[in-house]
Design goal:
Radius of gyration of chain B: 21 Å
Shape of chain A: elongated
Oligomer: heterodimer
Number of strands of chain B: 14
CATH superfamily of the largest domain in chain B: P-loop containing nucleotide triphosphate hydrolases
Number of domains of chain B: 2
Largest sheet of chain A: none
Order of helices and strands of chain A: HHHHHHHHH
Strand content of chain B: 25-35%
Helix content of chain B: 25-40%
CATH class of the largest domain in chain B: Alpha Beta
Largest sheet of chain B: 6 strands, mixed
Structural class of chain A: mainly alpha
Number of strands of chain A: 0
Number of domains of chain A: 1
Strand order of the largest sheet of chain B: 6-7-8-3-9-10
Shape of chain B: elongated
Order of helices and strands of chain B: EEEHEEHEHHHEHEHEEHEHEEEH
CATH architecture of the largest domain in chain B: 3-Layer(aba) Sandwich
Number of helices of chain B: 10
């Protein structure tokens, strides 16, 4: 599987596609919805799979001495790499963002651990719908992307609304105050757990779907 | 080397129907049939790119379904011209490709690149169709495979390159431990190098036997229309008529000492055409 992952990196990902990670730094824009930078990973995935499809990459992989399940898993790993690096960049730049706008973000969620957790849960929702549906064919990504995007937006919308309408939740999970930081870290850890579990399950379902595909 | 038994695959408009054949070591097998007869589907089923509904495929007595990864180490599969990763250079693709094979040999790859005049710094899209076929073959020949599955390997090649390719095929099987199964429409290629012929029509294997046996056991018959009788038609695989007379393909075992028509040795193309006509009739 690692060989296939390396093959994806070498042949299927155009160098400019890595530049999308810079968009993780959008967290530094004052009073701007912080989730937008994470949302760009979806476009990154879209371009990656479009490149892969135009190169007939899966057909090529099927001629190699590899397991069919590994073709799926290597693709999932690339998708996860795009997402995790983007979120990690946001996490690394979070202290800088807090310095740049210490009074918080007027355009929604603040750049704190809660945001990282929520971003990962949104991506978990995206992966759960996108990855298994994409691997029903291995080349049609229009409908799966729309389904994944809907999951992403709905989860984010629910989380953002809860934070904005509930003063209790807002006082705990918003802002940068050290007194409630533990709760925000808990949300981040829960987000990581949900992301990992959801992506593994999405991959398992995708492997099952891809077993029936004729290349 | 390769054993395919009762292979079935159903599509809405086509099905492979109990396809069975056996390829021993050290032979070149021509896989013929008209467009859409099931050649590519059979090859893809062997490679598990298309999953069969039923049947077994074994390479060196190891089932493809159970030992896919292991078996593919010793199989080379090329589908005509190399059409993947068109924006990458040949060298970059080869560098990635070789990491998947335990027995990759850089020297052999270089030798074939030189032989086929491949510039490995060129991108795939910069190559002609014929050169892309040669690149696919250079990759296929460089990892010490034992079973070569080629889907239309010589289409797109000029006659000189085709001849060169057939020489390469003969070199591959020379030591007797490697086999080639190649599908083609260019039946003259089969005349030159195939040891066995497998003929598939509409998803069914019509013929599978050594080429010489196939050609020796059939005869092309020719005569005038006045002499064409119902008995001759029934003994023939198929008969074609025109205003000058008739021609047909007949199994030599059906020839009678009293027959007055002219007989000739058929070509593989004759066999393919008449059997196809016979099935349609």
């Amino acid at each position: 599987m690692i060989k296939l992952f390396k093959k994806e990196l070498a042949l299927n990902i155009p160098i400019p596609l890595y530049l999308f990670w810079v968009l993780g730094a959008m967290i530094l824009i004052p009073n701007y919805p912080v989730i937008v930078g994470v949302g760009y990973t979806i476009m990154q995935i879209f371009v990656y799979l479009q490149t892969s499809s135009s190169y007939l990459s899966q057909e090529f992989s099927s001629t190699l001495p590899v397991k069919r399940s590994d073709i799926v898993s290597s693709n999932t790993l690339v998708i996860a790499m795009f997402q995790v690096v983007n979120v990690a960049i946001s996490l690394l730049l979070m202290p800088v963002a807090q310095l740049l706008y210490p009074s918080g973000n007027l355009a929604g969620m603040d750049a704190n651990f809660t945001f990282i957790g929520v971003a990962l849960i949104c991506l978990a929702g995206f992966n759960s719908l996108f990855i298994p549906n994409y691997f029903k064919t291995g080349y049609k990504f229009g409908k799966p992307v729309v389904l994944g995007l809907v999951a992403f937006v709905v989860i984010y919308g629910v989380c953002e609304t809860l934070l904005q309408v509930s003063p209790t939740l807002k006082s705990i999970f918003e802002g940068y105050q050290s007194t409630t930081i533990v709760w925000r870290i808990v949300i981040m850890v829960v987000g990581i757990a949900i992301y990992v579990v959801a992506t593994i399950f999405a991959n398992k379902r995708a492997v099952k779907n891809f077993e029936k595909v004729n290349l | 080397m390769l054993k395919v038994e009762n292979l079935c695959k159903k599509y809405p408009t086509f099905c492979l129907d109990n396809v069975s054949f056996h390829i021993p070591a050290g032979v070149i097998v021509g896989f013929i049939g008209q467009n859409g007869a099931g050649k590519t589907t059979t090859l893809k089923c062997i490679m598990q790119s298309v999953l069969p509904d039923s049947g077994t495929i074994c390479v060196n007595n190891k089932s493809m379904a159970m030992h896919e990864e292991e078996n593919k180490q010793i199989i080379s599969f090329t589908t005509g011209a190399f059409d993947y990763y068109r924006n990458h250079t040949l060298q970059k693709i080869a560098n990635v490709y070789k990491t998947f094979y335990h027995d990759w040999d850089d020297e052999v790859f270089k030798k074939y690149c030189l032989k086929f005049k491949l510039d490995t710094f060129k991108r795939v899209k910069e190559l002609s169709a014929g050169m892309r076929v040669k690149f696919a073959l250079a990759l296929a020949l460089s990892h010490n495979a034992q079973l070569f599955l080629f889907d239309e390997p010589t289409s797109g090649l000029d006659p000189i390159a085709r001849d060169e390719m057939l020489d390469v095929f003969q070199d591959i099987v020379l030591e007797g431990d490697k086999s080639i199964l190649f599908s083609t429409h260019i039946t003259s290629d089969l005349e030159k190098c195939a040891d066995y012929i497998i003929y598939i029509d509409n998803g069914k294997i019509l013929l599978a036997c050594p080429k010489d046996e196939l050609l020796d056991s059939h005869a092309i018959i020719k005569g005038s229309l006045d002499n064409l009788t119902e008995d001759i038609c029934q003994r023939c695989v198929a008969v074609k008529t025109n205003k000058f007379g008739y021609t047909g393909l007949m199994k030599r075992s059906y020839l009678l000492p009293t027959d007055s028509f002219v007989t000739e040795r058929p070509t593989v193309e004759d066999i393919m055409i008449y059997y196809n006509k016979g099935v349609q009739q």
